[in-house]
Amino acid sequence: MREAFGLDGEQVDPPAEVATLRDLLDWLATRGAGHAAALAQRDRLRAAIDQKFVPMETSIAGAREIAIFPPVTGG
Amino acid sequence: MREAFGLDGEQVDPPAEVATLRDLLDWLATRGAGHAAALAQRDRLRAAIDQKFVPMETSIAGAREIAIFPPVTGG
Amino acid sequence: MIDVRVQAEDFDSGAELARLEGLGGGAVASFTGLVRGDGGLVEMLLEQYPGMTVAALQDLAGQAAARWPLSGVTLIHRHGALTPGARIVFVGTASRHRAAALDACAFLIDWLKTRAPFWKRERFEDGRVAWVEAKREDDAAADRWAL
Amino acid sequence: MIDVRVQAEDFDSGAELARLEGLGGGAVASFTGLVRGDGGLVEMLLEQYPGMTVAALQDLAGQAAARWPLSGVTLIHRHGALTPGARIVFVGTASRHRAAALDACAFLIDWLKTRAPFWKRERFEDGRVAWVEAKREDDAAADRWAL
Questions:
Q1: Which of A14, B13, C92, C147 could bond C30 through an S-S bridge, CB–CB 3.0 to 4.6 Å?
Q2: What is the residue range of D104's domain?
């Protein structure tokens, strides 16, 4: 993700209708070709809000740190 | 088994109609109260011929050593 | 007794096993994952999401302890650059009952593969570098433990 | 690499684990069974059928190696008088794949429980001595591996 976005993290201020993580990904994908490509296989991505894994339906209200990951490959 | 039979092993010479291990157990059970009691739960017993586990249907022809066990409890 | 560690250094799986055996539990199961040198692999780089990793592993260990009667759980996961043959991960479980120890151990490694924030990047002899792709079969293995 | 041992002496499960980890297999699973001190147990006496025991364990290890792609199998089973906390049995498996190592390890301990010629006798604080009864659940656990 980091390589596809071309950055390690960014500060964003999404519009009010962006309520959930899924909304946020949809909105981020509109912000340039790199973002759209990185977010193309969106159904495989996972996300964490303030360092806890959460489903894509989760509200982003009040979130300080949102992380978007490709599928993990630990273990 | 050893305690129930009251012995560690015995030399037997069963009649010709005793063909399989199952026949042998049936025949042994007729040889006294201790034997009959030890062999009462016959369907739970296992047997080995010449130190290999075999099913009760196995022929005892040519067997040198036959061992009859209660269910094992190793591991 | 839950013991979770995320570290760059190697660990002594034999000592971990002995510690779990000393808990008086009757049954101890373990799993060690190691780097395979397939296809000319020279190095495996394990990246993590540092703020989250220990908490995620503690959560997994806690879920195992809630599902099975365990007297001990040890989870150790390395990060950083690892060479072929190196230990990556250790899962150890102690219980009164063998099924609980074995099942909890298998559960933990399956869930680690799909729910712990680690990513692997491989570097090969020919200079090629590639992120390891998540496997559908790992998702399937993890899903069999779903409630 | 199949290594089967039947012995009265204790063994070093950590060293066994390290040896399996050194085979380059990618995945190592282990199981250790220990004497539990339940109900005032003072001693567990493990009897075997000596002429048969090693061959029976070798047969089990061979069956595991035929069913899963294993680079190593270690089976150690003790006999004689053991006290609470003592190791009874060690099963270790190495493979390229974690499922093969884990499944083969679980298979081996399940089949050891029902197909290896060992019998346990327990002696308690109050002087009581009793043979351990085979458990129906052990038969069920072994049966799930039937072909």
A1: C92
A2: 2-143
